[in-house]
Amino acid sequence: MKSNILKLGALTVASFFAVASMTTTANAVELTAPGLLDPTTEEMTEAGAYKKEGPWTIGMSFPGLGNTWIVQMVQETQYTAANNDQIEEFIFTEAGWAPAKQVADLEDLIARKVDAIIVAPMAPASVKKQVDAAIAAGILVTTYGSSEGVLNSAVELNLGGKAFGKAGGEWLKEKLDGKGTIWAFRGIAGVNEETLRYEGLTEALEGTEIEIGAEVFGDWNYTKGKQLCENLVLSGQPVDAIWFSGADMTRACIDVFKDVGKPLVPMTGEGNNGFLRIWTENDLDSVAPIYTPSIGPALVRATVALLEGETLNKSYYSDPAPITNETLGDYYREDLNDAFWVTSALPEDEISKNFAR
Amino acid sequence: MSWLNILRFPGRSGLGIVPIGVPIVMFIFISFASPNFLNVQNLSNVNAQIAALLIVALGQMIVAICGGIDLSVGSVLSLTSAIIVSVDPALAVPLALLAGLVVGVVNGVGVTIFAVHPLVMTLATLTFLQGLALLILPVPGGDVPDYLEAMVDFSFLGLPAAFFWCLVFATAAAVVLRSTRFGLRIFAVGANEDNAARNGVNVVLHRISSYVLCSFGGVMAGLFLSARVASADATMGAHYGLESVTAIALGGVLLAGGIGSVPGVIAGTIALGLMTNGMNLIGVSPFVRAAATGLLLLTAISLQPRKAIGA
Fold first, then answer.
1. How many domains does chain B have?
2. How far is CA B151 from the centre of its chain?
């Protein structure tokens, strides 16, 4: 009995130190501001497994440009890389939303003999061969988004996806008391992130009497979103609320409602200052999930940490509480223009320089 | 006639100094600008990266020589990608070819019999096919048949599979253009369809055939590209319609018809491929890249003015 108690005691102490050491290691590398990014697995990368002598060349393969969120994320990523003495060169490639171009970009980065690649795949399966080839060539690969086991990258930093779509869907369900007709404004057809967000919405609406009366692809773009919203509003189709797959589309639709003098209905948004401004200035009822552009800097920091020989959790997820009517004041910045997205990793002077109204 | 004169007055091939010179100048420039450009792996990458575009562009060239344009070929590529992972592997290629045949015939009939402008006709087909591809495969993924992957994943005599794909389709297109009556007649139709008709050429049949061959190119490129990435994507070909038009324009093909050549299309495709590869290797900012690409294309195409067919 005494022996068992001793064993139990030893096990407890050992477990405490194991957990403490894991927590210490995970927290040792600050990837983002506290509360923005949490580990989703206890599995850790092996210490020193990706260690390389600096200075390093880091490449990033991104699906494409097209809205202000992406532009800010790129700026923040490049700023973080430029302020790290150990990063000799940071190469950002964008594939113009063409899967074949992203494959070519990755091949070019491998040929360029970079030390690490950050990949944000349009579709994980499309770049699997190239990621495997990079790893075989001794290049560290970190992934933006969840590949759900498809990619063998060292670390995955994920955000948005189903949880993003579900947050808006749950809010609409509550607002409409479980019944009514909504319009769904989706992003770019065929893009993994877009499909996941939409799946999140449909999951949230399961078992309710809420119907999706119209479904359009606005490409996460203000101009296209505005045209589509105009068409829908002028068609006279009934609508009790609108779900948006994020980006600049909500702002576009609010402008349309105001232009034609139609009373606003509950609309989901995203943490964009332009949207937050309209939300603040109008009697709008909304919710805005936060899809932080500081994911870019976090990816750079994770990549650098691994190249320095640190250990990280294998995957992280960013799911901060969405902005609500009650917390809107904490996020809206009157001094900044509509192109600013919360939350930013840039220092205040850089934010003011780039986004001053 | 000397080689210099052929280049200065290229005749119906359109193969002048600019189409040949642009990729050569780019090759030399990138060789100096990026030390990794000339390594075997990178050159092999460039080959693989341009293969699908070359196959599509060769089909586009046939339509253009015949006086048309096919913007839907990119959607044919996407549809092919969606089909081959959604049906029994044994039926994948026949079904994709059948789809290509139907699309080509529909485009050709629309343009010739119903007199719809080629831009309008193929833009409508592009939109329909893109939607159809997304209906078949809303989320990228799926398993490409093993035999297709094997066809793009081999090397022979030290040369990658992509090289042989390019060789086969370039040779086939060259034979069709230079050694068959069909080839001769599409030049005639593209140069002046009334004259061609008066000389006994069946204009309708040749126009429809050119669209079918172009769609066939889209199917082949779809098979190649899907096998290359070992996965399908219903938006895979979205950019290929316009890029193939750019490639043939860079290669000296006259978009009004009657002028064009396989070497020119190869040169135009290589120029586009080098542009992408070179900018990635040199590390040009993505914000500068689009502007630089447009400027380069504008310069290259402006240097190839023609007053009349055959000039």
1. 1
2. 20
- Report residue A77: phi and psi, to 5°: -65, -45
Pick from A196, A175, A176: nearest CA to A187: A196
Please count the residue pairs, one from chain A and one from chain B, whose beta carbons lie less than 8 angstroms apart: 100
Residue A132 and residue A206 share a domain: no
Q: Is A114 inside a domain boundary? A: yes
The reply to whether residue B140 touches residue A97, judged by beta carbons under 8 angstroms, is: no
Mean pLDDT per 10-residue segment, chain A (357 residues): 45 42 50 87 93 94 88 95 95 89 93 95 89 96 86 92 91 94 92 88 95 92 91 92 91 90 92 91 87 95 96 92 92 93 93 92
Do A175 and A217 lie in one domain? The reply is: yes
Which tens digit of pLDDT belongs to each residue from B164-186?
999 999 999 999 999 999 999 99
Closest C-alpha among A208, A204, A165, A168 to residue A187:
A165
- The encoded tokens of residue B80 equal 């092919």
A348 within a domain of the structure (yes/no): no
| Residue bearing tokens 């290259």 | B300
Nearest CB neighbour to A125, from listed B48, B134, B140: B140
**In this complex, is the C-beta atom of B132 within 8 Å of any C-beta atom belonging to chain A?**
no
Domain-embedded: residue A345:
no
Within 10 Å of residue A309's Cβ, how many Cβ atoms?
13
Q: State both tokens at B93.
A: 């290629």
Pair A71, A192 in one domain: no
> A306 and A277: one domain?
no
Whether A190 sits inside 8 A of B49 (CB atoms) is no
- Residues of chain A with Cβ-Cβ distance to B36 below 8 Å are 111-113
Residue B211, in any domain of the structure: yes
Q: Judging by DSSP bridges, how do beta strands A179-186 and A315-318 pair with one another?
A: unpaired
d(CA A164, CA A168): 7
Nearest CA in chain B to A123: B140
Tell me which chain B residues have a C-beta less than 8 angstroms from the C-beta of A65.
286-287
Estimate the crossing angle of helix B40-65 against helix A99-111, to 10 degrees. Answer: 150
Largest interatomic CA distance in chain B: 57
Determine contact, residues B268/B250, Cβ cutoff 8 Å.
yes
B235 interaction partners in chain A (CB closer than 8 Å)? 97-99, 189-190
The total number of structural domains in chain A stands at: 2
Q: Domain boundary residue among A227, A259, A281?
A: A281
- Dihedral of CA A244/A37/A86/A107: which sign? negative
For B220, the domain range is: 52-238
Give the CATH number, domain containing residue A244: 3.40.50.2300
Residue whose pair of structure tokens reads 């670390």 in the numeric block: A155
Whether residue A242 sits in one domain with residue A127 = no
In a domain, A40, yes or no: yes
The pLDDT score that the predictor gives to residue B151 is: 93
The domain in which residue A275 lies consists of: 161-281
Task: Kindly state whether residues A214 and A145 are assigned to the same domain.
Answer: no
pLDDT at B10: 67
Tell me the pLDDT band of B6, cut-offs 50, 70 and 90.
Answer: low
Q: Tell me, yes or no, whether A166 and A225 share the same domain.
A: yes
Residues in A touching B236 (Cβ below 8 Å): 98-100
Question: What average pLDDT score do residues B90-105 get?
Answer: 96
